[in-house]
Amino acid sequence: MRLLFIRHGDPDYVNDSLTEKGMREAALLSDRIAKTHIDEYYVSPLGRARETARPSLEKVGKEAVTLDWLREFDPRIIRPDSPERTHVCWDWLPQDWTEREHFYRYDEWLNDEILNEGNVRERTQYVLGGMDSFLSAHGYERDKHYYRAVRPNNDTIALFCHFGVTALILGHLIGASPMVLWHGLCAAPTSVTTVYTEERRPGIASFRIASYGDISHLYIADEPPAFSARFRECYMNEDERRD
């Protein structure tokens, strides 16, 4: 089985929609999707993901099933550098999260007092439980840190969603702390991340990331990637966001 995690286009977060650039990106993405054999389509309930999916679905004449657990992973915390509960749980300053060794460990990253106060564990269980139930319905049942291929298949499934929830799910699939993925990877708007199963022995499957954050559909059209999800490359670059 192959999973395509597709991040939404350049966002207008205030209105939970897309900017004009995001709409152009979604249209270019649809050209790529139309050339790809996809068996099923799923989408986050949030507007920016649905607007990104719309041109692709219209072009292929399909409908997407909405999955609530695909919404952005955004429980709020009181970050060490701020007294207000206004920060998304995975948006930490490097000098703060790297001091907490448990954030590097797949089975310990949730054992943090700040995350516990922000209801992060409950939201994590909701998302990952949803993902495992989804995979089970598609023939792959989790068994500790791998999956039983009960009904192995070569289906390709598209999931239009968000950067934060994708990193959380990828960490679950490959056995990595999502905190490292949230801070070590950057997926530009409308980027496509491809994950596939490997079954080296009958009935035992694992997931591998074949490509992460691919935006070749933008490069082909000479459309520069949006800066969303990134921070300024150098602090002196005042035309790029710092926080």
Descriptive overview:
Helix 1 packs parallel to helix 2 (47-60), helix 5 (120-137) packs across helix 6 and helix 6 crosses helix 7 (178-184). It is globular and about 50 Å long. The model has no long low-confidence stretch (mean pLDDT 96). It has helices spanning 20-34, 47-60, 94-97, 113-117, 120-137, 163-174, 178-184, 216-220; strands at residues 2-7, 11-12, 17-18, 40-43, 65-66, 76-77, 87-88, 140-143, 146-149, 156-161, 192-201, 204-214. It contains eight helices and twelve strands.
Outline of the structure:
By secondary structure, the chain is α/β, with parallel strands linked by helices. It has eight helices and twelve strands.
Strands, helices and their partners?
Layout lengths: L1 E6 L3 E2 L4 E2 L1 H15 L5 E4 L3 H14 L4 E2 L9 E2 L9 E2 L5 H4 L15 H5 L2 H18 L2 E4 L2 E4 L6 E6 L1 H12 L3 H7 L7 E10 L2 E11 L1 H5 L23
Parallel strand pairs: 1-10, 4-5, 4-10
Antiparallel strand pairs: 1-11, 2-3, 6-7, 8-9, 9-12, 11-12
Helix pairs in contact: 1-2, 5-6, 6-7
Q: Give the beta-strand count.
A: 12
Helix count from the secondary structure assignment = 8
Q: Which blocks of ≥5 consecutive residues have pLDDT under 50?
A: none
Shape: globular
What's the end-to-end separation, in Å?
Answer: 38 Å
Round the mean pLDDT to the nearest integer and report it. 96
Helicity level: 25-40%
Encode the helix/strand succession as letters.
Answer: EEEHEHEEEHHHEEEHHEEH
Major β-sheet profile: 8 strands, mixed
Structural class: alpha/beta
The main sheet orders its strands as: 5-4-10-1-11-12-9-8
Strand content: 15-25%
Rg over CA atoms? 18 Å
